[in-house]
Design a protein that fits this description.
Helices cover 73% and strands 0% of the residues. The chain is mainly alpha-helical and 166 residues long. The chain has one domain. Helix 1 (22-47) runs antiparallel to helix 5 (129-149), helix 2 crosses helix 3 and helix 4 (102-122) runs antiparallel to helix 5 (129-149).
C-alpha cells in the first residue's frame, strides 16, 4: 500500500512513546521498592500480631478480654487491607508515571500527602515498632519518588504527555 511522504511538519507523526529520563526511571524504581516495602509491612504485621496485644494492653489496661481481642482484630484487618491497597497504588502509579501521564505525577503527590498524614497519625496510635520502622522507610521512598517526579529533568517528559491526547 502506498503511503505519501508527509509534506508539512504538521503531518509528521510524533513518536508513540519517548523514553523517560533517568529521574522518571529512578522514581518508578522507587515506586516498585515502595510496593515491595509495603509487602514487607504486611508480612511484618502478620508476624507480629501478638505484639498488638501488648500494645493494646499498655494503652488500654482497663479493656476486657473481648474488647482487647476486638481491638487486635480491627488493628490487624485494617493493617492488612491498608497494605494491600498501598501495594496496588504503588504499582499503578509506577505504571502510569513510567508512561509519562501527568495526572499520575499529581496523584502520586496526593497519595504521598495522604501517606504523610497516615504516618503522623500512626505515631499517636497503638503501634508495633517493626511495622512503624518499615512505614518510615516506605515514606522515605515516597519522598524520593516525589522529588524525582517533580525535578527539572522530569518536567518536559510529563509536559509532552500533557499536551498529547491519551
Amino acid at each position: 500500500m502506498y503511503q505519501p511522504y508527509p509534506s508539512s511538519p504538521s503531518q509528521v507523526p510524533e513518536p508513540a512513546h519517548a523514553e523517560p529520563p533517568n529521574s522518571v526511571r529512578n522514581a518508578v524504581r522507587l515506586m516498585y521498592a515502595g510496593a515491595a516495602l509495603s509487602a514487607v509491612v504486611l508480612i511484618v504485621t502478620l508476624v507480629t500480631i501478638a505484639s498488638f496485644k501488648h500494645g493494646i494492653l499498655a494503652r488500654h489496661p482497663d479493656y476486657t478480654a473481648a474488647q482487647r481481642h476486638n481491638a487486635e482484630i480491627a488493628a490487624v484487618v485494617t493493617a492488612v487491607i491498608g497494605a494491600l491497597i498501598a501495594i496496588g497504588l504503588w504499582l499503578w502509579m509506577a505504571w502510569a508515571n513510567r508512561r509519562g501521564r501527568n495526572w499520575a505525577r499529581i496523584v502520586s503527590a496526593v497519595f504521598f500527602g495522604i501517606n504523610t498524614l497516615d504516618l503522623i497519625i500512626s505515631f499517636t496510635q497503638v503501634h508495633v515498632l517493626a511495622p512503624l520502622i518499615v512505614s518510615v522507610l516506605v515514606w522515605l521512598v515516597g519522598l524520593g519518588a516525589i522529588i524525582l517526579l517533580f525535578s527539572k529533568e522530569s518536567g518536559p517528559y510529563f509536559a509532552r504527555s500533557a499536551s498529547s491526547p491519551g
